[in-house]
Amino acid sequence: MAFKRYRGLPQGEVTVEEFRAWLSQFDADHNGRISREELQSALRSLNVWFAWWKARDGVRAADANRDGAVGGDDEVGRLFAFAQQHLHVKIAQLGYY
Q1: Angle at which helices 36-45 and 16-24 pack, to 10 degrees?
Q2: What pLDDT is recorded for position 5?
Q3: Could you give the maximum distance between any two Cα atoms of the chain, in Å?
Q4: Environment class of 79 (CB within 10 Å of its CB; exposed 0-12, middle 13-18, buried 19+)
Q5: Where are the alpha helices (DSSP H) in the chain?
Q6: Contact present, 55 and 18 (Cβ < 8 Å)
């Protein structure tokens, strides 16, 4: 079994671009969208407790078209807001996020 090593989320305040680049590491099927399972892997890499639950809540909060994945600028913006509010990730306010 091979283990993939992921780059961690930078400490302190991160920019939207850094957050997006970090999150893109977990896009297992390379479709440009983050599923609940992929978000769960991202949260586990941060040693977040109840990662499956928080991933479910994150996708529910961000998935505007209810297709089960987060993709597109609007939905990613919603995921940024969820991460700030519920995961205590400090994201620099750049652009319209």
Answers
A1: 110
A2: 52
A3: 42
A4: buried
A5: 16-24, 36-45, 51-62, 73-86
A6: no
Count, residues in the chain = 97
Mean pLDDT (the chain, rounded): 85
**Which residue's entry shows tokens 């991933």?**
55
pLDDT at 19 over 70: yes
pTM, whole model, 2 decimals?
A: 0.83
Q: Are 14 and 90 in contact (CB under 8 A)?
A: yes
Residue with tokens 């639950």: 53
Report CA torsion sign: 30, 67, 41, 15: positive
First to last CA, the chain: 39
**Residues ≥6 apart with Cβ < 8 Å to 50:** none
pLDDT digits (tens, 9 = 90+) for 48-67: 899 999 999 999 999 999 99
- Nearest residue to 33 via CA among 66, 59, 71, 63: 71
Q: Which amino acid is at 60?
A: R
